[in-house]
Design goal:
Elements: E1 5-8, H1 16-28, E2 35-37, H2 41-53, E3 59-63, H3 65-76, E4 83-88, H4 94-98, H5 105-114, E5 117-127, E6 130-134, E7 137-141, H6 142-151, H7 154-160, H8 163-174, E8 180-184, E9 187-191, E10 193-197, E11 219-224, H9 229-240, E12 249-253, E13 255-268, E14 271-291
Parallel strand pairs: 1-2, 1-3, 3-4, 4-14
Antiparallel strand pairs: 5-6, 5-14, 7-10, 7-13, 8-9, 8-13, 10-11, 11-12, 13-14
Helix pairs in contact: 2-3, 6-8
């Protein structure tokens, strides 16, 4: 493929992405020098921004959801017309699945070779420290702290994989919850967990509903208000079983506001982003372009 570069996350999928490099060069008919490794997600973001700035199009990456967030933020600093190609190699590949991109290497590469693109919505978290785009979701509160704990030790993450999040989740379920204010239009509430969804899936293959869209200019705000542990477990059980979820406020909106008395943990696309005290979350319509089968994008 002419005028394309591939960024690899060597640690994605427990080293899967690094092992795929020779196959990527052959499958896409590019030189191995067109494939670069990112030392970190921050490095991937810088490389993506640089490639977009010098006219590379598409920018392709091999990695998981964290890598997608890095590449998307780098590209969008330059232009929303630079296409992003995905070769999934993460633990869950939530965004790729939402976009209808197969996780099987040969099928994902075939999508890229065809070169069809689709512009879809992206989310943006604006806070006093800056702004951050997300694709699938941005979580605030409980699950963000679970991600923080699970991701804080790379050895544990590599050893346990997804189980690291389950272990951290069990601990946080029993701990005291931190509440913060959520406001969306006429709605306001105190919440210990809020999720702003843009993609279809959350935390793997879990779906909060079957009527989400990635190209309607709206996101889905899910607000967990005060509830008992048994109520919370009932919600999570329903989520895992793909059953109707009750007890969570759901609002279809293009923006929402959060404010917390204490530093509030948050994550975007599965990567812990730090702490904030206030933020506006927006959905930006058709703001990012992906290489995918347009017919597969809901």
């Amino acid at each position: 493929m002419l005028n394309s570069k591939v960024i690899i996350n060597p640690s994605a999928g427990r080293g899967k992405a690094a092992r795929l490099a020779p196959r990527i060069a052959s499958a896409l008919d590019i030189e191995e020098s067109d494939i670069v490794s990112a030392a970190s997600l921050q490095d991937a973001e810088k490389k993506s921004e640089h490639f977009a700035m010098i006219g590379v199009n598409p920018v392709i990456f091999c990695g998981g959801d964290g890598m997608l967030g890095a590449v998307m933020n780098g590209v969008l600093k330059v232009s929303s017309n630079v296409a992003i190609g995905i070769i999934p190699s993460g633990m869950s590949d939530v965004a790729a699945v939402s976009l209808g991109i197969p996780r099987r290497f040969e099928d994902a590469v075939e999508i890229i070779r065809r070169g069809q693109t689709q512009k879809v919505d992206s989310g943006l978290v604006i806070h006093p420290g800056g702004g951050r785009h997300f694709y699938s979701m941005a979580d605030f509160g409980l699950t963000a702290d679970i991600v923080r704990i699970a991701e804080s030790n790379l050895l544990i993450k590599k050893t346990l994989g997804k189980k690291a999040h389950y272990a951290a989740g069990l601990y946080k379920m029993l701990a005291r919850k931190q509440f913060f204010d959520v406001r969306c239009g006429d709605y306001s509430a105190r919440s210990f967990q809020s999720v702003f969804m843009n993609g279809l899936f959350w935390g793997g293959n879990f779906r909060w509903g079957n009527d989400f869209s990635q190209k309607d200019g709206l996101g889905d705000l899910l607000v967990f208000e005060k509830m008992t542990l048994s109520s919370l477990m009932s919600i999570l059980t329903a989520l895992a079983g793909n059953r109707e979820i009750k007890g969570v406020a759901r609002l279809r909106t293009s923006s929402a506001f959060l404010k917390s008395e204490k530093p509030l943990p948050w994550h975007a696309d599965g990567e812990f982003m730090g702490f904030l005290r206030e933020a506006e979350i927006q959905i930006q319509s058709e703001s990012v372009k992906f290489i995918c089968d347009p017919a597969s994008v809901i």
